[in-house]
Amino acid sequence: MAEIDLYLDPVCPFAWVTSRWLLAAAEGGPHKVRLRQMSLAVLNEGRDVDADHRPMIDRSRRLGRVFAASADTAGQGAFNRLYDEVGTRLHVHRGGFDTDALTASLVAAGLDPALSHSLDDAGLDAAVTAAHRAGQDALGGSGGSPIIVVDGHGFNGPVLTENPGAHHGTALLEAIVTAATTPGFAALQRPYHGSPNIERTTEAAH
In sequence order, what are the beta bridge partners of 201? Predict the structure, then answer.
């Protein structure tokens, strides 16, 4: 059995695909999976962010406060519930996100709708930074979303451009656990371009 933490920013579409794969692949199996918060806004502090990515960074900052407040008031399980609702709206339905949409997501997640006021509460930024720092410390360096930590071994990714489906997904999880716990294994990466295909799964394509 492996202890697996996946650090992610809720606004990251690649992290959404990775989280759906990981939760499905681990369901009913021996591995324990936790989703944890990181922040692309904190990661990019002091950096020049191009105009195309600035809205995502701003959304990361504001939504990150709500996720931090939710976890503080309702426990770590609140992160998963709210992420399911927010992620579905953002990444599956590609919807906009205003206060009304956030309030609806909080209610659907069984959380206090008044948490929507946390969007502009800069007093929560320290909590967001602390959550983000935990992921960076687990990685042992600076990395984006997502970061996977298997039995204390942290790696950037995995980055998935589509959901691999049940058969490939289970095999992928076991391969990552094996790689992560193999002494001396450091990195495996190949180029990719564009955004992930949220709706597509590998098995559905065949």
Answer: 163
